[in-house]
Each structure stands twice: as C-alpha cells, then as structure tokens.
Amino acid sequence: MPTALSLSLLGLLSIPEARAEWIFREQAIMGTRCAVEFWSERPAEADSLANAAFDEMRRIDRLMSTYKPDSELSQLNARAANKPQVLSLELFGLIRDSLAYSRLSDGAFDVTYASVGYLYDFPSQRRPNTAAIRRALPGIDYRHLRLDEKRHSIFFERKGMRVDLGGIAKGYAVDRAMAVLKRGGITRAMVNAGGDTLIAGDRFGKPWVVGIRDPNERDKVALRLPLTDTAISTSGDYERYFDEGGTRYHHIIDPRTGDSARLLRSATVLAPTAMQTDGLSTAVFVMGAERGLAMINRLDGVDAVVVTPQGKVLYSRGLTPPGAGP
Ligand code: AMP
Ligand code: MG
Fold this sequence. Notes:
By secondary structure, the protein is α+β, with helices and mostly antiparallel strands. It has eight helices and 15 strands. The protein has helices spanning 4-14, 46-64, 72-79, 89-104, 114-117, 130-136, 169-183, 274-297, and strands at residues 21-29, 32-40, 85-86, 145-148, 153-156, 189-193, 196-200, 208-213, 221-227, 230-236, 241-244, 247-250, 266-271, 303-307, 313-315. The strands form four sheets. Strands 1-2-6-7-10-13-14-15 form an eight-stranded antiparallel sheet. Strands 3-5-4 form a three-stranded antiparallel sheet, with no helix packed on it. A two-stranded antiparallel ribbon has the order 8-9. A hairpin with a 5-residue loop joins strand 14 (303-307) and strand 15. The longest helix is centred in the last third of the chain and has 24 residues, at 274-297. 41% of the residues are buried. Bound molecules: adenosine monophosphate and magnesium ion. Adenosine monophosphate (AMP) is lined by residues 109-111, 113, 117, 164, 166-167, 195, 235, 239, 251-253, 255, 278, 281-282, 285-286.
C-alpha cells in the first residue's frame, strides 16, 4: 500500500514539467528579418525574453533610423551643418567608434557616404547622375565630422554632409540583443539581423552552421561555415539594388566615387562582435579582394571570405587551408 506521503510525491512527479528546449522567434525590424534562437531552460519565459531582445533592436532602430524624421540621427543630419549638436552618449559613441573603421580602411568605410548615398532610391530605381554626384561628393569625408568628446557633440564642417549608420547599426543592435539574452541567463544563442549574426556558445558539442548565400541565387547557399562563439557578417551587392543597362547599382557606395562599389560580389567577415563584423564587411566589400584581405590579415582574431565578380572565393590567412596558398 502506498503511504499518503508517497502518493503525494507521485502526484508531484506527474505534474508535467516545462522541459528545456530550443526556441526560435523572428520579427521584421530595421527593414530586415531579425531572428533569435536560443536554448531555454525555462520555455515559459522564452517569449518575453525573445521580445525583450527584439525591443532592444527596435529601440536602436528608433535612435538611428534615417527613415524616421524624428530619430536622433535624422535630427543630427538636419542641424549639424549649422551648429554642433549634442547627442546621447550612445549615438555619439557609435559615430565615434565608426570612425575607427574609417581610419582602419583608409576611408572605404565612411558613415558620411550618405552625403551622396541619400540620392539613391533603390526601390524606385533612381540614382544620381554624374553632375549630382560631383556636387555632393565633397560631403563624403569622415575627417570633416568634428567631434567634441566633452560635450559629446558633433559638427559637420561641410554643408551637405549626412551621416547614415546602415553599415554598422545592425551589428550593434545584434550585439545589444545578445546582451539582453545573456542577462536572461542564456548561454547558447544565435541573434541575426539581415546579414549580421552573433553566435554564443555551441549546440551541445556541435557548432552552429551559418550559410553564405550564392550572390547569384537567392535560395542557394555557396558556403556553409561551422561556428561557435563568433560574429559573422556578409555584405553583398544583392541586398538592395537595381540593374540598368548591364550595370548594377546597389546600396554599398565607394566613398571615393559616390558610385556603387564593384570590386566584389560579397564580403564575409568573422570577428568577436557583430559591430566589428558589420563595419568590416562593408569596408572589405568596398576595398576589394587585395586591399580588403590585406587589412583583415593585419587584424588579430578577424577573418574574411570574399566572392569576386568572376565567382572566385578567396580567404584571409586564418581560413586558408594549409598548402592552398593565399
Ligand atoms: P552592409 O550590408 O552592412 O554592408 O551595409 C550596407 C549599408 O551600409 C548600406 O545600406 C548603407 O546604409 C551603408 N553604407 C553604404 N556604403 C557605405 C560605406 N562606404 N561606408 C559605410 N556605410 C556604408
Ligand atoms: Mg556592414
């Protein structure tokens, strides 16, 4: 005969336990598909944790969107050529940090690309003509952003300057969203926003697998990389573009010419944070295989894979198989 105590124990044991599981959620934010995937020991709380991560991405988008006229960045662009604008520490810090990528890439990454970049409208297939580019080109030069560290203000030293953080803000948002998950106790996770991904931990002894898309075919994967504890970003000429007379006009602008960069089809970078990989993948895309991979090879803990217009896949030193040459 079971005792009363053992009966109640049996009762307790039969209460269905919420079992740990992999959680996957996605939402459209920052004009792209954003996803979080993580191992949750408390699935009942998984939705609120995923939503907190998405809310953080939405908050950053509100701060840095140039599509929203009331965003802090839009306000900066509207006023900073007249007088210095005091910014939140967060926006000031992000612009200041983006200058490091400009210096590193000798100006290939430059958030003031937008001085010309805003003249392109990819959905409507509109682009500036040569004269319009020539007029706006002097506005591209990160060295004419005057930063005041004490007041965290920024002044545009040239009329017509504009800043756009599209080349780095998604990576920053991914890093911040991962921080939200980690504060919620998560140790195995992937956060993704369009071409920018951050991976924490592994999948219980197995790596995460991230695919790099074939530049010519939306649904074809050119390369699969097994990864743990890293960020990875891909910049490509197939994200926002239109073709005209056999030439592709797309969203990554060469600051020297004001025209779309055409030395590569895609550039993928691996590094510890998504902000690093986001900034560097855009930079490598503009710099091309030779200069881009040379820059990556000078950096510790950073690697890259590029696809050339001829379809050749080239790797940085850390990824080149022994004996395969550069
Ligand atoms: P990504 O997909 O990270 O390479 O970012 C592309 C986005 O970066 C574009 O949509 C622009 O918002 C921005 N961008 C374009 N050209 C540049 C550039 N030369 N330097 C910095 N940001 C850029
Ligand atoms: Mg980028």
